Amino acid sequence: MKKEPEYIVKAAAVVPSERQIKWQELEFNAFFHFGINTFTDSEWGNGNEDPELFDPEELDCRQWARLCKLSHIKGVILTAKHHDGFCLWPSKYTDHSVKSSKWKNGNGDVVRELSDACREYGLKFGVYLSPWDRHEETYGQGDAYNTYFKNQLTELLTGYGDIFCVWFDGACGEGKNGKKQKYDWQGFYDTVRKYQPEAVINITGPDVRWCGNEAGVCRKSEWSVVPYYYSNAELIAAQSQHDISSPPKKINPTALDLGSRKAIKHCDKLIWYPAEVDVSIRKGWFYHKDDDYTVKSLSKLSEIYYNSVGANASLLLNIPPMPSGKIHERDIETLLSLGAQLDIDFQENLAEDSVMTDNRHLDDKHTGQHILIDDPDEYWHSGFDPDGSELVLDLGDEYDINKIVLGEHIRTGQHVESFELFALINDKWKKLADETVIGYKRICRFPEIRVRYFKLIIKKSRCFAAISRFEAY
């Protein structure tokens, strides 16, 4: 049995919550930045905008949802309120909302229309609610604004069915009184847990972290197990730290290494905190006509997909609707092309009905063959001497293949630190990949080859290795 340091044993024992697993399984979600900024051609409103400006005469949330469905997007997040404080639902706590617009004579509700469309098309629905509010008078007044915010949050969590995600960005600028607000983060989290216990709380929250950039890529080694202080520095600092290590003076969520042995060695408390990659299909987050020629190409979106979903992260792609309330044709064209490309790329898993052998396993219920069973509870377990473990896939015949998809059984944790992938070409094992982590999903791409046998070698793993996915395309 491999003897590991105590901090590695602890890291190997950290596992995700059920809500985190369900979020990870979605893989690809859409962000819709839509609001008063759409009509003022701005990114950040000042809170003084006239609500009557909001008038999406052709609003078609069914178009948005249908496009997502065809693009392999599984969940949708709407900017229900951005920094300007304008609400896309008729909140009873402010008049700065759709009820004061001329759209539908003040009787409209974008949140309602999109949540209904998501249910119709089988998509998950989530909300973004900006904590910074440049319109609300109580912002900067402490408890008064926190109560206001929790009231609005409660409206969204109780009035629109199941919510899969609540997205907070942590923005904290000055209010009308020139003061910044001290947010009651724990109160916000408690409100979500009370009304939508299955919802993940993202970015400034305990469930999902920002990958650290908006370029559409994540780290070479994107660990889901990281030190506790990355989850919320402000909240953690207020809690007792007598029995856990103190966070460093500077916490940098953009650091290239969050979860290696070196990064976690001196932290007594580790958490499961997976990464989300957020990026816009255009230059800006809200729609601007000048951005019509900045829509990312199919090749760029494909690379973003493989560098996020394919590297143990989730992809959140922003799609900004036009003032009309519809998606621009350029965005539609690219997204439909992406959906068609993903259909082609993952048309048939050639590893199904194949044979998988291993050079070691825990017991007969965790042999290599269990990886190929289409059941998330079935997996190969290396036993407790994982380094050097080998898995050999026999496809039964030669096929043209350019992708192998791997996945760890994350219900037992994230363990693999490095691996190699080979193909048997002319009776010699040719190395196709030499990578670090696997995590929930790792997509290994290579020039197309005609091959029958693949070999995966676990070079280094924490305590054991558990693989539940090995697919060939």
Report on this structure.
The protein is α/β, with parallel strands linked by helices. The protein has 2 domains: 6-345, TIM Barrel (Alpha-Beta Barrel), CATH 3.20.20; 355-472, Sandwich (Jelly Rolls). The protein has 11 helices and 17 strands. Strands 5-4-3-2-1-10-9-6 form an 8-stranded parallel β-sheet. Strands 11, 12, 13, 14, 15, 16 and 17 form a 7-stranded antiparallel β-sheet that branches. Strands 7-8 form a two-stranded antiparallel sheet. Helix 10 (298-306) links the parallel strand 9 and strand 10 (313-318). Helix 6 packs parallel to helix 7 (185-195).
Q: Can you give keywords for this protein?
A:
alpha/beta; 8-stranded parallel beta sheet; 473 residues; 17 strands; single chain; 25% strand; Jelly Rolls; 2 domains; TIM Barrel; 7-stranded antiparallel beta sheet
Quick recap:
By secondary structure, the chain is an alpha/beta fold. Helix content is 22%, strand content 25%.
State which percent range the strand residues make up.
Answer: 15-25%
The CATH homologous superfamily of the largest domain corresponds to Glycosidases
- Output the CATH class name of the largest domain: Alpha Beta
Outline: globular
Write down the secondary-structure element order: HHEHHEHEHEHEEEHHEEHEHEEEEEEE
CATH architecture of the largest domain: Alpha-Beta Barrel
Helix content: 10-25%
The number of helical elements comes to 11
C-alpha-based Rg, rounded:
24 Å
| Overall tally of structural domains | 2
What kind of sheet is the major sheet?
8 strands, parallel
> How many strand units?
17
CATH topology of the largest domain: TIM Barrel
Q: How are the strands of the biggest sheet laid out side by side?
A: 5-4-3-2-1-10-9-6
